[in-house]
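Narrative summary of target 7.
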Amino acid sequence: MTSKMMEINYLDWNNSIDILTKAHQAGLFALIIGPKGTGKTTLVRKFASELKKELYSVNFSLRTRESHLIILLVQRLWKKGKLVLWKGYS
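Modeled conformation, tokenized:
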């Protein structure tokens, strides 16, 4: 996503934004499931834009491994200059 915030058009017919807001305020995670093309990604984009937060998207497949997620996270944090590495305690 670019640094410009784009307006997301999302018809919230079942109060999903409100539910996500309450979950976020309570420190809970939300799992959004549904068939392809039902607006899951658009919902999350809209929610992130309302919070003025940058959204990171990761597509999963049967071949996705934990190492793939770690690599993506490290790359994104490194690009932003937010990656701090330190030696662990033994």
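Residues 16-79 form one domain.
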